Sequence to fold (289 residues):
Amino acid sequence: MIFLEYGLVDVKDGAFVLVDEKGVRTHIPIGSVACVMLEPGTRISHNAVKLAAEVGTLLVWVGEGGVRLYSSGQPGGARSDRILYQAKLALDDDLRLKVVRKMYEMRFNEPAPQKRSVEQLRGIEGARVKKMYEMMAKRYGVSWKRRDYNQKIWSSGDVPNRCLSSATSCLYGITEAAVLAAGYAPAVGFIHWGKPLSFVYDIADLFKFETVVPIAFKIAASHSHNLEREVRLACRDFFREQKILSKIIPTIEDVLKAGEISPPKMPDESIPPAIPPAKSIGDIGHRSK
Fold:
């Protein structure tokens, strides 16, 4: 995956290129790229979108460093096998519990307690997360009561809560980009359920306390005049330096493998479309393996 910014994305002489303000072309080997993240300052031509579609490369419009996700070329992925695999894991109670237990293990670096339901694990997780917020606030010398915010009345939250909300919003942006790039559905979650970004919340929680929570408390302690902007810029820089996107996708695969099943095969009675689509020069759907 690559990020592009500040230029015109176009097709010149048959090549997918980024043309900067001085007319300098940077060739992008689009056929070997799974996903192109278009950051602010980019424009893209119809020909470039068409070529990306032909080779099966996903286009995603994001904020700087992926701190926001605005739109994607093919939401939910172009491959049904991954979405069916994800849905089968989510709809089977036993398989779902295996995935949730894996999430617990990855989040807290220890096996989940035995003979616990998803609801019970969620309760244990909530208590531990509460303690983690308290420890983080103490580390950075921030006055902390509890996680509390109102999306409709932003100013009602205290400083640390506003910083945390800004930081987690940034994490959700880059996590959604990773979920889409890997060919899965953001709405099909395991712990979270019934929201357009349920799976995004599940995966983002695995990274939250190692990435954006320390940033949020650090900036809350700095008494900045523009907290939300400072948080957003700090998250952007951190995501780029630590290459967070490249870490999220393997984590998604590891989490789903905990279900110990293979992607489902299509029924024998299934038939191909009456008029097959034109043969593409790229792989079917997204290129992630």
